[in-house]
Specification:
Elements lengths: L1 E6 L4 E6 L4 H10 L3 E3 L2 E4 L5 H12 L3 E5 L2 E5 L7 E2 L2 H5 L5 H10 L1 E5 L12 H9 L3 E5 L2 E5 L7 E3 L5 H12 L4 E5 L5 H12 L3 E3 L5 E5 L4 E2 L2 E3 L4 H14 L1 E6 L7 H10 L2 E5 L2 E6 L7 E3 L8 H11 L5 E5 L9 H7 L3 E5 L2 E5 L8 E3 L3 H13 L3 E5 L11 H6 L4 E6 L2
Parallel strand pairs: 2-17, 3-15, 4-16, 7-8, 11-12, 20-21, 24-25
Antiparallel strand pairs: 1-25, 1-26, 4-6, 5-6, 8-10, 9-10, 12-14, 13-14, 17-19, 18-19, 21-23, 22-23
GO molecular function, one term: UDP-N-acetylglucosamine 1-carboxyvinyltransferase activity
Organism: Clostridium colicanis DSM 13634
Pfam family, one: EPSP_synthase
Length: 419
């Protein structure tokens, strides 16, 4: 186990490069196993533990993978199993994308129930509803999801709730179904669009991704392609928030500014200067930040994955801020850790009521989940004194080289073994 030692109170200045989107990559990698001909060359894959985990699972199915830095080449023509039952499957939430991918290609799959961060109840009922509508039989046996079908046939599917996971998973299976599938009340997140674009590069016929109605004309087979994953909206937002919190001037490069508009708008409302420049965003902050109210919503609303880092920033903003977490019911676990550093926050149901304080002080805290870990790093950067962040394996699931990137901006963070 490792931990981060953070020496707080240093402004951030300079430029930072954003990696490929975690939430897109962990769906695109499983989608690549649907290619029955050729190889998939995927660029801009983030070097994080979640992508390493998915790659190991794909190899366990019989695929051949070669890597060169951020580029992953997948030859799935030799896959010899539709059973994903390794320990790696149970470690991460996104392993459920293997169900849709394997069902689409082989008309059957057996995948262990997924793991991931404990941020609330995350059922896969909408996934199952979609698979059954396409003609698959779904069972839960001995902790695994078992799906099979003689043939998949397109259908009209209305999701009861907006679900990124269900939208992508059913889209994967429907790509190789017979006839037309229409997904209504679909998620509109950028990584949904990215997965659709990747599938189309393989020969799929998908239209409407990015809207709440996606139309899929089934094709007989998919072939290999070359593709580059979009930039990570959440990583970019995290560094933007850190720059606002610490003060200074940071240019966040290799981003799609439109994906960041809801975050930029709130930072501007707080008194931060945010400037868009093509494929970069510059954040300039000189303190005197004002509290704001935030409600997390599906895209294009404020992202739930940025709520926790934003809470760390709001803890030192003047006045009262209210954060309404409308997506996950257990996404305030970081609040108790922030309180150890002097934050004044009360949680009432899905609301966090924050009274801004003049400063935080260093303490020993833990990363309770991925985005909570990012929040604690930001808290450590703005605190007086030294902060220790433990359980950083959560952080490594979504932020490549986090201490190196922050240190390049003027921070002082050291990764050490946690005895």
């Amino acid at each position: 186990m490792e931990k981060l030692i953070i020496y707080g109170g240093r402004p951030l200045n300079g430029e930072i490069e954003i990696s490929g989107a975690k939430n897109a990559a962990v769906a695109i990698l499983p989608a690549a196993i649907m290619a029955s001909k050729g190889v998939c060359t995927i660029d801009n894959i983030p070097q994080i533990s979640d992508t390493y985990c998915i790659e190991k699972i794909i190899e366990s199915l019989g695929a051949k993978i070669t890597k060169n830095k951020n580029t992953v080449i997948i030859d799935s023509t030799c896959i010899n199993s539709s059973n994903a039952d390794t320990d790696d499957v149970r470690k991460m939430r996104a392993s459920y994308y293997l169900i849709g991918a394997l069902l689409g290609r082989f008309k059957k799959a057996k995948v262990e129930m997924p793991g991931g961060c404990a941020i609330g109840v995350r059922p896969i009922d909408q996934h199952i509803k979609g698979f059954e509508a396409l003609g698959a039989k779904v069972k839960i046996e001995h902790g695994a999801v078992v799906v099979e079908s003689d043939r998949l046939v397109g259908a009209n599917i209305y999701f009861d709730v907006v679900s990124v996971g269900a939208t992508i998973n059913v889209m994967l299976a429907a790509t190789l179904a017979e006839g037309k599938t229409i997904l209504e009340n679909a998620a509109k997140e950028p990584h949904v669009v990215d997965v659709a674009n990747f599938l189309n590069s393989m020969g799929a016929d998908i239209k409407g991704a990015g809207t709440d109605v996606i139309k899929i004309n089934g094709v007989k087979e998919l072939t290999g392609c070359s593709y580059s994953v979009i930039p990570d909206q959440i990583e970019a937002g995290t560094y933007m928030i850190a720059a606002a919190a610490c003060g200074g001037k940071v240019t966040v490069n290799s981003v799609i500014p439109k994906h960041l508009e809801s975050i930029s708008a709130k930072l501007i409302e707080m008194g931060v200067k945010v400037t868009e420049n093509g494929d970069s965003v510059t954040v300039e902050s000189h303190g005197n930040l004002r509290g704001v109210n935030i409600k997390t919503l599906p895209y294009p609303g404020f992202p739930t994955d940025v709520q926790q880092p934003m809470t760390a920033l709001l803890s030192i903003a003047k006045g009262r801020s209210i954060v309404n977490e409308s997506i996950w019911e257990s996404r305030f676990k970081h609040i108790d850790e922030l309180k150890k550093m002097g934050a004044q926050v009360n949680v009432e149901g899905n609301l966090a009521i924050i009274e801004g304080v003049s400063h935080l002080t260093g303490a020993k805290v833990k990363a309770t989940d991925l985005r909570a870990g990012a929040a604690m790093v930001i808290a450590g950067l703005i605190a007086k004194g030294v902060t220790e962040v433990t359980s950083i394996q959560h952080i490594d699931r979504g932020y490549p080289y986090i201490e190196k990137k922050f240190n390049a901006l003027g921070a002082k963070i050291i990764r050490v073994k946690d005895e």
